[in-house]
Amino acid sequence: MRPAAGSPSWGRTSGTARGVTSTAPTPTLALTHVAAAEHLYAAGFDVTEVITRFLPYSFRGRLPASPRLTRAYRRCPMLWRVLGKQFPILGAKPG
Asked: How many structural domains does the chain have?
């Protein structure tokens, strides 16, 4: 079944990747740190802390992944603003 004209394709591919055509829907929803915190609050959680940029999407890059570099990254909030793409939200269930 093809999507109607003007509607999103929901991640369907028209080409092939390694000879396999994907027709399964893969919906994607991007949330900001504000929207995610609002959803937690609406679900009854108390949001205690939101770090807007913390983790990069991946640790693949020019430098090899090592525990020492990871510890150094976690101790330097200035790097979070430059390299961070994901956000943690800390919350607690009241009561």
From this structure: 1
